[in-house]
Write a structure and sequence with these properties.
Blueprint lengths: L34 E3 L2 E3 L9 E9 L20 E3 L7 E7 L5 E8 L9 E4 H7 L7 E7 L18 E7 L2 H12 L6 E8 L2 E8 L5 H13 L6 E3 L6
């Protein structure tokens, strides 16, 4: 079995950006519970609100770069992501290296580390920013960030979703530019859905309806490959 390793081209701490906490729905993908790895059974938490933990962190890098994470995303060792055995996916976590006091926010989108003496596996980039990439492990404190608006949709099926929302703008002109950009990439209808929030109008750009869940997933993949990383599945008329 090939060993994990740092990339051939190193990254500097200031080049690694913290994950930006936002309300993301918790769906079935990556959240099977219980699940078994190497003969051990693990359970995913029903809720991570208020969760804190202290223990040993490790990192993973070039061996897994470009592979799929537990929820089907592509692992990027330079991004602020992490693997945890039981936190719901996705969860945003503040990680503090107790050996040097450095902190950062990561996004959990994977499962692991499956070692009894470790509580979290961080991306190589996160390890660089936290200052333990050279030593391999560090004592850390984890603090889950509670984000208003996060919905738990683990019991929902893909058939519940018929639209993708790809951006929300305060300016209708900006929304129209996004709408035109998306319409050039898909044959599905792309439209602007205005909504009022806190006495302000927000112009939401949406694609759909899409009645086939496979088509919906394929469109998500095309958007991701085209650089659209901020999108969410929605039900008819209801933003997630």
């Amino acid at each position: 079995m090939r060993q994990d390793r740092a990339p051939a081209v190193p990254v500097l701490a200031h080049q690694v950006a913290d994950a930006v906490p936002r309300a993301e729905a918790i769906r079935a993908a990556g959240n099977k519970s219980p699940y078994t790895v190497n003969g051990e059974t693990y359970w995913v938490m029903p809720s991570a609100v208020g969760f804190e933990e202290t223990g040993t962190a490790s990192w993973y890098g070039a061996k897994f770069h470009g592979e799929l994470t537990s929820n089907g995303e592509v692992f990027d060792m330079y991004k602020a992501s992490a693997a945890h055995k039981s936190l719901p996916i996705p969860t945003f976590v503040k990680v503090t290296n107790l050996d040097n006091g450095r902190s950062m926010v990561v996004r959990v989108n994977d499962r692991g580390p499956f070692h009894s003496d470790r509580i979290i596996d961080l991306s190589y980039g996160a390890a660089v920013k936290l200052g333990f990439d050279q030593v391999g492990t560090a004592q850390v404190h984890l603090e889950v960030l509670s984000i208003e608006g996060t919905e738990d949709l683990r019991a929902s099926t893909d058939d519940d979703y018929r639209y993708l929302q790809v951006g929300a703008f305060s300016s209708r002109d900006s929304a129209e530019l996004r709408r035109q950009e998306l319409q050039n990439r898909t044959t599905f209808p792309v439209f602007i859905s205005p909504a009022r929030f806190a006495n302000k109008i927000v112009y939401r750009v949406r694609i759909g309806p899409i009645d086939d869940s496979k088509e919906l997933g394929a469109l998500e993949n095309r958007l991701l490959e085209a650089g659209f990383k901020e999108y969410s599945r929605i039900r008819e008329g209801v933003a997630l």
